Amino acid sequence: MSNLFIPNPKEVESIHILREVAAQFEKPVLLFSGGKDSITLVRLAQKAFYPSRIPFPLLHIDTGHNFPETIEFRDQLVAELGLELIVRNVQDSIDQGKVTEERGRYASRNTLQTTTLLDAIEEFKFDACIGGARRDEEKARAKERVFSVRDDFGQWDEKNQRPELFDMLNGQIEQGQNVRVFPISNWTELDVWEYIKTENIQIPSIYFAHKREVFFRDGMIWTANEHVFREEHEQVEEKMVRFRTVGDMTCTAAVLSEATSLEDVVNEIRASTISERGARIDDKRSEAAMEKRKKVGYF
Amino acid sequence: MENRKLIKIATAGSVDDGKSTLIGRLLYDTKSLTTDKLEAIEKTSKQRGFDYLDFSLATDGLVAEREQGITIDVAHIYFNTEKTNFIVADTPGHVEYTRNMVTGASTSQVAIILIDARKGVIEQTNRHFFISNLLRMGHVVVAINKMDLVDYDEDVFLKIREDFEALVEKSDFKSEQITFIPISALKGENIAKKSDLMPWYVGNTLLDHLEVLEPEDLQQSSLARFPVQYVVRPKTEAFHDFRGFAGKLYGGNLKVGDDVTILPSFTTSKIKSIQFFDQEYSEATPGSSITITLEDEVNISRGDMLVKSSEVPHSEKSISATICQVNNKPLRVGQKYTLQHGVNRVLAKVESISSKVHTDFSGEEASDQLGLNDIGKVNFRLSKPIHFDAYTVNKANGSFILIDEGSYDTVSVGFIEI
Predict the structure, then answer these.
(1) Contacts of residue A149, Cβ cutoff 8 Å, sequence gap at least 6
(2) Which of B117, B386, B396, B403 is deepest in the core (most CB within 10 A)?
(3) Per CATH, which fold does B220-308 belong to?
């Protein structure tokens, strides 16, 4: 038996939050993107309820434009841990005429996900959706609560948020409302990477440097792929790259990198001078991009 | 995650004290502003016709704030140095926003109170220190900013320190937990770099001070309290009879073999194991999220509390507390609320309001209600006893929130008195 348990303050805070979700809500769900943050959440949930199984399912909103490596990874993780996985497809929302596919140079299914997500929440009557968003990612996220109440339309009212005092979480909601829960709110990108390294957590291969067909636009590196709009003059080249986030292929830019191991990645993040969302094409649309998307129910 | 020291800071200052600039400066000086963010700041500063970098743009997040040029809610900002991780809860200092500072301070160990060197100690400063004292912050840094606008004059600094010390006299805050630092956030004097322009100041720069600081922590010096958050019952073949009690430990250590009493039933047992994930430990320290199993089969549910049998807390159906109202809806005598004490909920009725407290240390007055941002002394009657300590002895077990029964909003925070 080992002796004194010395907690990692950020880890125990996240575990405290996950236990509150399980205790305060009837139908929680973990929003799983296959990205490192949601993978970290799965590990934290495993720890929170051990030796019980994670007491809520995973929900993946599939844009249809995911990196295949991510989907493969997702299915493997679910099988290994015996988790329940629900997948809902943006393609279905398009086919049902609920949303219209964007066209042109910057066409992306990223914003369309919101509709599919809100429909899934209604279909399963989820009252709490656990997400891997962090406050350090973006200015609008910096003001997000741990328990963030959304109305029937999934809207976020940033001026009317419940104050969160000490570590007491108030998950009481009215019929039709739901709560977005962010257990790793207080983690930074470096925290997540260091945790993945210490815990030896498996992550999709696209996080590590690999050779890929890409093209350059607006100073960013785009994946050359059937799902990504490309002008004739935009030359495809093979480069050694990796991804810092794994969103939809159409809005996730790669970075040039030689980091092939976790150790390399952590060192690269430490030395990095570009923020993680700096490689998110969706945030570049305007200074208030994220805040606007959040107000209408984005993750 | 590497185990760096974690320091949580709440900032307080009036609208024009340069608080956002200070935070932006801390980010800049610790190289936490990434190139893309720095470029955005450069671009916007230029658009607005400034001949300097407006670091406040680094933190003012929401559209409404950018329009008004003031911070309107609590924002969290992260940066780190080689040895320490910092979390800053940036709380607005505007008159009406007592609520936000209380919120930000509740999750922080250190308060930085900003004072404009030209204005000195003003009514706002009184309020900020009042709240720091009420919440028993582990440490207060009084940052006297805009020294560049008073020619870096030592006399200005000394006068402000004297005025602030007069304030401290009126409180019961320990003066050794307060540090005064003269700074210029705009010019970066005494933030990360020691100022050549203020040779008369011999103390640490703000950043050095925050790094070496050991804030006083009430949680580490009191009695063990373990509120049960969740009962773990796997019901699998491998763990057929497993019944674990998951929760966060506050106040003191718990060890395997400790005699414990379970509240509210007052049944007793012994700790059989302390677990974190798939590891067993013989002892846990405060702040740990752990799972405990007991020697005996005891009926325990969420909201119950495990304590050492020799250290039982107060159990009462009537409590008195200092209340800070954090919602527009006023608190009135006769009103009923859900009272959440840690993870436990009971019904509470406001029996009487003893007084409304002036947040500038000028005393108190009689009042029949508490409005948003008011602080007052209130007596409650509860549907069931809660098991508590005074806030000044154990923060976690001495605080609660009130939840409105109609809107379910968090409307008040309470600090229990004995």
Answers:
(1) A161, A162, A173, A177, A178, A179
(2) B386
(3) Elongation Factor Tu (Ef-tu); domain 3 (2.40.30)
